[in-house]
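Design a sequence for this backbone.
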C-alpha cells in the first residue's frame, strides 16, 4: 500500500522521504499536503527512459500543471526536463514567476479569454493549443495587431472513449473540447489555419481522458487521426510536424486500479505513430505527451488529525478529520476512492472499519468509505495516500477553511513550498458593508 519512499520507522510512524510524518504535523500543523520529491523525479525519469528506446524520435513530455500548480512544483518540473501545460492566465503567471522558459509552455483551454491570449503572446509562449473557431479569430486579430506569429496545434476530438469516469471523459464526440474529426469541424479548422499568415500551424493535439488503464484508447485515437492526416495530405498538402496525444496515464489510488507501466503506454503510442506514418508514407512527427496525475498523484499524501468520532450501533463508525472536501474535492466530485494509513500507528494491525468524514457541513463530505485502520483515538494522525494530483489544485474555501500548507520532502529534509493560509487571508478581499467596519 505504501508508495515511493514511504516507510514505517522504528517508532511505528509513517515516514516520507526519510521524514517522520508525525514530526511534519508538529512542525507545520494539519491538514498538511506532503510531496515525495524522489517519487516525482522517478516518474519523470520513467518517461525519459521509455522514450530513450527511440533515439530517432523527437518527443516532449509536458507536465500538466493543473494537477498541482505552484512555483516550487513548476521549478521542479523544469529541473526534470519537462515542458509545461497551463490552462489559464493564473497557471501561466505561476510558471512565469517560477522562471519557467516560456518557449516550453503550451496553453490549453476551451475558452481562453482575450486577456489570457494577450498575456500568452506577450510572454512569447511556445505553443497555443487552439480549441475552437472563436479562438482562431481572436488569435488572428491579436497576432495581426502586433505583427507577430505564434505556434499552434489544433485540438481535435478523435471520437474515442477511454475507459474512465464519465465526468472526466473528454475525447468522445459530445465534448466541449476541440474540433470534431468526424463532423468535419477539424478539417474546416485545418483549412483556416493553413491559410493564416500569423498562426504557425505545427500539428494536432488530442486528449482522450484521464486515469486511463489501457493502451487501446491511445491506439484508436492515433489510428483515427491518421485516417484524416492521410486525407489532408492528399487534398490539402498538409503535413503534421507535431502529434500531441495528451495525458491521462492512470495511477493506483487503491487495489481496484491497475495502471500499466509508463513504458507500456509510451511503447504503444510510439509504435502506433511509427506504423501509421510508415503506412501512409509520412515523416514521423514529433510526439508530445502531457502527463499530470501520473507525475504528482502518488507522490502526494495528506496528513490530518483525527478529532471526533461517532459510533452508530449496527450501522457504522464515523471518524472525523480536520479537513475534507475543501482540501480534497475528488471523493465528493467523482466518488473517487482513497486509502489511508494511521501515520502514528503505522505498524499496528488494521482492526476497525470506519468511515472517514471531513469537517465540512455536507453529508457528502466523506473522504473514505469503509477504511480499514487500527483502533484510533482523537489526536491520531491519518495519512490519506495518493492526493498529489487535483488535491491542492482543487482546494477551496468552503466553510471558510484556510487552505493547508504544502511541504516537499526528500533525503530526510522537509521544505515548505506553500504556506498555510490564515483567517486573515480568508477575509483579505472582503469589503465592509456597515458604516463602522468591525474588523
Ligand atoms: C488534464 C489534462 C491533462 C493531464 O491529465 P492527467 O490525467 O492528469 O494526466 C493533459 N492534457 C490536457 C489537455 C488536459 O486537459
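Sequence:
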Amino acid at each position: 500500500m505504501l508508495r515511493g519512499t514511504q516507510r514505517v520507522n522504528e517508532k511505528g510512524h509513517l515516514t516520507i522521504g526519510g521524514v517522520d510524518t508525525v514530526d511534519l504535523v508538529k512542525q507545520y500543523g494539519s491538514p498538511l499536503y506532503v510531496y515525495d520529491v524522489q517519487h516525482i523525479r522517478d516518474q519523470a525519469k520513467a518517461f525519459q527512459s521509455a522514450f530513450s528506446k527511440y533515439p530517432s524520435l523527437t518527443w516532449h513530455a509536458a507536465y500538466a500543471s493543473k494537477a498541482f500548480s505552484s512555483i516550487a512544483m513548476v521549478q521542479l518540473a523544469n529541473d526534470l526536463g519537462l515542458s509545461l501545460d497551463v490552462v489559464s492566465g493564473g497557471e501561466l503567471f505561476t510558471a512565469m514567476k517560477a522562471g519557467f522558459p516560456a518557449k516550453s509552455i503550451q496553453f490549453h483551454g476551451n475558452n481562453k479569454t482575450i486577456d489570457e491570449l494577450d498575456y500568452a503572446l506577450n510572454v512569447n509562449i511556445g505553443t497555443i493549443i487552439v480549441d475552437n473557431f472563436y479562438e482562431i479569430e481572436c488569435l488572428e486579430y491579436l497576432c495581426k495587431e502586433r505583427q507577430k506569429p505564434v505556434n499552434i496545434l489544433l485540438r481535435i476530438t478523435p471520437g474515442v472513449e477511454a475507459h474512465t469516469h464519465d465526468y472526466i471523459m473528454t475525447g468522445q464526440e459530445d465534448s466541449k473540447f476541440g474540433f470534431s474529426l468526424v463532423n468535419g469541424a477539424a478539417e474546416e479548422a485545418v483549412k483556416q489555419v493553413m491559410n493564416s499568415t500569423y498562426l504557425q500551424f505545427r500539428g494536432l493535439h488530442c486528449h482522450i481522458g484521464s486515469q486511463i488503464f489501457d493502451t487501446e484508447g491511445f491506439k484508436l485515437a492515433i489510428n483515427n487521426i491518421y485516417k484524416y492526416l492521410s486525407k489532408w495530405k492528399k487534398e490539402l498538402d498538409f503535413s503534421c510536424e507535431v502529434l500531441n496525444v495528451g495525458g491521462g496515464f492512470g495511477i493506483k489510488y487503491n487495489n481496484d486500479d491497475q495502471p500499466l507501466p509508463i513504458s507500456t503506454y509510451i511503447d504503444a503510442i510510439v509504435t502506433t505513430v511509427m506504423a501509421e506514418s510508415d503506412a501512409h508514407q509520412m515523416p514521423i512527427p514529433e510526439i508530445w505527451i502531457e502527463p499530470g496525475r501520473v507525475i504528482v498523484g502518488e507522490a502526494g499524501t495528506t496528513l490530518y488529525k483525527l478529532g471526533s468520532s461517532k459510533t452508530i450501533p449496527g450501522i457504522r463508525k464515523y471518524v472525523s478529520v480536520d479537513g475534507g472536501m475543501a482540501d480534497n474535492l475528488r471523493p465528493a466530485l467523482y466518488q473517487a476512492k482513497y486509502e489511508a494509513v494511521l501515520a502514528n500507528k503505522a505498524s499496528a494491525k488494521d482492526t476497525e472499519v470506519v468511515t472517514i468524514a471531513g469537517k465540512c457541513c455536507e453529508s457528502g463530505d466523506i473522504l473514505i468509505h469503509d477504511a480499514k485502520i487500527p483502533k484510533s483515538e482523537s489526536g491520531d494522525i491519518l495519512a490519506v495516500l495518493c492526493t498529489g494530483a487535483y488535491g491542492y489544485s482543487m482546494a477551496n474555501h468552503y466553510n471558510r477553511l484556510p487552505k493547508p500548507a504544502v511541504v516537499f520532502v526528500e533525503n530526510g529534509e522537509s521544505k515548505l513550498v506553500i504556506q498555510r493560509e490564515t483567517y486573515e487571508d480568508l477575509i483579505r478581499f472582503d469589503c465592509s458593508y456597515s458604516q463602522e467596519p468591525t474588523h
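Residues 64, 66-67, 85, 108, 207, 210, 246-249, 290-294, 389 surround pyridoxal-5'-phosphate (CB under 6 Å).
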